[in-house]
């Protein structure tokens, strides 16, 4: 067995791991990057980029469906599923290629191929992919092992028709029908995209949640808007499934009644699970939370007071790519200059589902603001049903709710399902991070006619409610499971 001693060992070569490795190296540390799976990052291979390629194809198909509303008639629509999926795979591979170019630039001696597991707080064994194991001693460790799609126990070992989101992007053609399990970001994005591409889609939710929303008013609006286009079954329990030829017979329980339906595929999209259970975490000496993830400081990524740091999806804090990059930067900085631990830059939270309308949350969520001990806050809102530019585009669906702090007037956050919401979310997240007041935001320029005028309407409503000086928020209004 090869023996190796390093300053920093980074477990995982995804977004967080790559950034952590490079940042630790910038401090002069001797660092190694350990990866047991394919290089290329979750985002590029099976996440953000291939899903947006599928969504882009769906948007093109939907534009043809929407065109008659403008008096434009394009003729018979034809969707070539083989061509759709060929472009998804081709462009996906191109994005992965960019990542691989960066990996190739890393010195070969700094890359260890194989599965790593702790044997002690400072020691790891890497089961070498080439059959050559490595006994590794590391002064500091960064855990950046990512996450994997959650698999439901009642759908285990059913057959090839039960899949996870990773499998979608290797399809050679669009399927006839898909049952999507989960109304989170991944489930709704893929479900709507496939439906717009002519696939028969049904979506099943254990509760009443929609993406990452916690505001009960926005949540109800989003459930209605998404249900107008998608066959969504809320409060549905998955009883079981069986493979029957090239179809899956799915059994659910809805309102106390068992129902059965056939689909070519059953897609599990019920969240992601941090990859921390197979790395010998029990030998690390770290204190673990109830989810099995080491307890850590979100400002420094340090696990307890140890020499171990955790970054990206592995810590399950904010499992999106920009946060993984920030986590990696903070973890790599602190691992590189240990024991000089410093808090890193944490940006205003921002999460978007690329459904149509977009579903976006930013800053403090409604649920967080309603926690005991929080300062009182006011709410402003706008519906996009009669908002000028939204009606012009025939995208007049959804609503925006914005939150402000009594006394200071500081803008705190927002939740929305809105046309062009991905852009509105950035605008408002910047305001949160800049600690702007609602009045300062209203002093900013607003052009006409733009969707952003809806933001101004919501902010004016918020300003009026802040001026009243008393909170009318009912924390008990938060729906269970949000």
Automatic annotation (TrEMBL):
The keyword Flavoprotein applies. Its cofactor is FAD. FAD binds at residues 52, 145-147, 313. GO terms for molecular function: dihydrolipoyl dehydrogenase (NADH) activity; flavin adenine dinucleotide binding; NAD(P)H dehydrogenase (quinone) activity. Binds 1 FAD per subunit. The keyword Membrane does not apply. InterPro entries: FAD/NAD-bd_sf, FAD/NAD-binding_dom, FAD/NAD-linked_Rdtase_dimer_sf, Pyr_nuc-diS_OxRdtase, Pyr_nucl-diS_OxRdtase_dimer. NAD(+) binds at residues 182-189, 271. Residues 7-324 form the FAD/NAD(P)-binding domain. Residues 352-458 form the Pyridine nucleotide-disulphide oxidoreductase dimerisation domain. Its EC number is 1.8.1.4. Keywords: FAD, Flavoprotein, NAD, Nucleotide-binding, Oxidoreductase. The active site is at residue 448. It is an enzyme of class 1 (oxidoreductase). Disulfide bonds join 43-48. Signal peptide: none annotated. SUPFAM superfamilies: FAD/NAD(P)-binding domain, FAD/NAD-linked reductases, dimerisation (C-terminal) domain. Belongs to the class-I pyridine nucleotide-disulfide oxidoreductase family. NCBIfam families: PRK06292.1-1. This is Dihydrolipoyl dehydrogenase. It comes from Massilia forsythiae.
């Amino acid at each position: 067995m090869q023996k190796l001693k390093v300053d920093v060992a980074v477990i995982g070569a995804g977004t967080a791991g790559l950034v952590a490795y490079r940042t630790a190296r910038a401090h002069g540390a001797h660092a190694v990057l350990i990866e047991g799976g394919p290089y290329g990052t979750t985002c590029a291979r099976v996440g953000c980029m291939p899903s947006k390629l599928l969504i882009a194809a769906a948007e093109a198909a939907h534009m043809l469906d929407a065109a008659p509303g403008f008096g434009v008639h394009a003729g018979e629509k034809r969707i070539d599923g083989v061509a759709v999926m060929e472009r998804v795979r081709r462009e996906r591979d191109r994005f992965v290629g960019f990542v691989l170019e960066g990996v190739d630039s890393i010195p070969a001696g700094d890359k260890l191929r194989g599965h790593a597991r702790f044997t002690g707080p400072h020691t790891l064994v890497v089961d070498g992919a080439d059959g050559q194991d490595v006994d590794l001693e590391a002064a500091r460790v960064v855990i950046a092992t990512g996450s994997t799609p959650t698999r439901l126990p009642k759908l285990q070992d059913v057959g090839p028709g039960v899949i996870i989101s990773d499998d979608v992007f290797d399809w050679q053609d669009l399927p006839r029908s898909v049952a999507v399990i989960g109304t989170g970001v991944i489930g709704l994005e893929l479900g709507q995209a496939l439906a717009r591409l002519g696939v028969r889609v049904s979506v099943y939710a254990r509760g009443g949640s929609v993406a990452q929303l916690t505001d009960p008013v926005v949540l109800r609006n989003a459930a209605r808007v998404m249900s107008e286009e998608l066959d969504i079954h809320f409060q549905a329990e998955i009883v079981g499934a069986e493979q029957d030829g090239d179809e899956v017979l799915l059994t659910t329980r809805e309102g106390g009644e068992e129902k059965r339906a056939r689909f070519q595929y059953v897609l599990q999209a019920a969240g992601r699970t941090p990859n921390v259970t197979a790395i010998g975490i029990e030998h690390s000496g770290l204190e673990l939370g109830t989810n099995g993830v080491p307890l850590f400081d979100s400002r420094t990524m340090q696990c307890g007071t140890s020499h171990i740091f955790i970054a990206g999806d592995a810590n399950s804090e904010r499992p999106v790519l920009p946060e993984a990059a920030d986590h990696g930067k903070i973890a790599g900085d602190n691992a590189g200059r240990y024991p000089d631990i410093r808090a890193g830059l944490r940006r205003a939270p921002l999460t978007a589902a690329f459904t149509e309308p977009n579903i976006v949350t930013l800053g403090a969520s409604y649920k967080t603001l309603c926690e005991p001990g929080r300062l009182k806050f006011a709410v402003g809102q706008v519906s996009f049903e009669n908002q000028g530019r939204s009606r012009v585009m025939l995208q007049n669906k959804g609503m925006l709710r914005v939150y402000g702090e009594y006394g200071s007037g500081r803008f705190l956050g927002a939740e929305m399902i809105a046309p062009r919401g991905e852009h509105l979310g950035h605008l408002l997240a910047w305001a949160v991070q800049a600690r702007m007041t609602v009045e300062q935001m209203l002093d900013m320029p607003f052009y006409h006619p733009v969707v952003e005028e809806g933001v101004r309407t919501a902010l004016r409503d918020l300003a009026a409610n802040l001026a009243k000086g008393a909170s009318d928020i009912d924390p008990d209004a938060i729906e269970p499971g949000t």
